[in-house]
Amino acid sequence: MTSVFITYSADKLDQLTKRIEDCLGRLSEEQVWMRNSESENAVGNLVLHLCGNVTQWIGSGVAGRPDHRQRDAEFAARGSATIGDLKQRLRTTIDDASTIIRGLNEADLARRTQVQKYDLTVLEAIYHVVAHFAEHTGQVLFATKLVTGQDLGYYRHLTAAAHSEKTP
Questions:
Q1: Does pTM top 0.90 for this prediction?
Q2: DSSP 61
Q3: Are 17 and 94 in contact (CB under 8 A)?
Q4: Alpha-carbon distance 96 to 65, whole Å?
Q5: Are 129 and 58 in contact (CB under 8 A)?
Q6: How far is the C-alpha of 92 from the C-alpha of 81, rounded, in Å?
Q7: 23 phi, psi to nearest 5 deg
Q8: Radius of gyration of the CA atoms of the chain, in A
Q9: Considering only CA atoms, which of 44, 50, 43 is closest in space to residue 94?
Q10: How many C-beta atoms lie closer than 10 Å to residue 122's C-beta?
Q11: Mean pLDDT of successive 10-residue segments in the chain (168 residues)?
């Protein structure tokens, strides 16, 4: 069961990353940093936030690396990174996190760690990251649909009478 959790977690982060990368490819630089009010986050801020969160929780909390996260800067950014930069940063972050996750075993998952003053198991940290990543991916997808007026097409296969796709 351990390998199922590990594989599913890494695969899910990769799938969600591909969707964010696709959304970034559909948006202009202006749209990536667009916000309707100061209380909203632009897609660019969400990408920076996801990179910071994954690096902190997986890189630091799971792998034991130093935590250099500056969370407030993720939300304060205003057009400071190009679409290409955001894609590269996101891909590098997720590839690293996936490697860390795939290298774990059952004993690792039960190990306790501390992240953001929370005391939890490595399994709980991974579960948190995947859920958090999925929540913000949904925001990126919604923003992309809102701005472009496009159906992103990720679930077109469900309209067919039968399909062979595996649940990601």
A1: yes
A2: I
A3: yes
A4: 12
A5: yes
A6: 15
A7: -60, -45
A8: 17
A9: 50
A10: 23
A11: 96 98 98 92 97 98 97 92 98 98 98 97 98 98 96 84 61
Q: For the residues of 80-111, what is the DSSP string, one character each?
A: -S-HHHHHHHHHHHHHHHHHHHHT--HHHHH-
- Return d(Cα 72, Cα 97) in angstroms, integer: 22
User: What are the backbone angles phi and psi of residue 149, rounded to the nearest 5°?
Assistant: 70, 15
* Chain position carrying tokens 């990251």: 129
Task: Assess contact for 154 and 79: CB atoms under 8 A.
Answer: no
Q: Is 12 exposed, middle or buried (0-12, 13-18, 19+ CB in 10 A)?
A: middle
Q: Residue 57 and residue 122: Cα distance in Å, rounded? A: 9
Element (H, E) at 135: helix 122-148
Looking at the chain, how many residues does it have? 168
Distance CA 26, CA 150 (A): 9
Q: From CA 84, how far away is CA 47, in angstroms rounded?
A: 12
How far apart CA 86 and CA 122 sit, in angstroms, is 27
Select from 167, 58, 65 the least CA-distant residue to 103.
Answer: 58
List, in order, residues 6 or more apart from 168 with CB less than 8 Å away.
Answer: 11, 12, 15
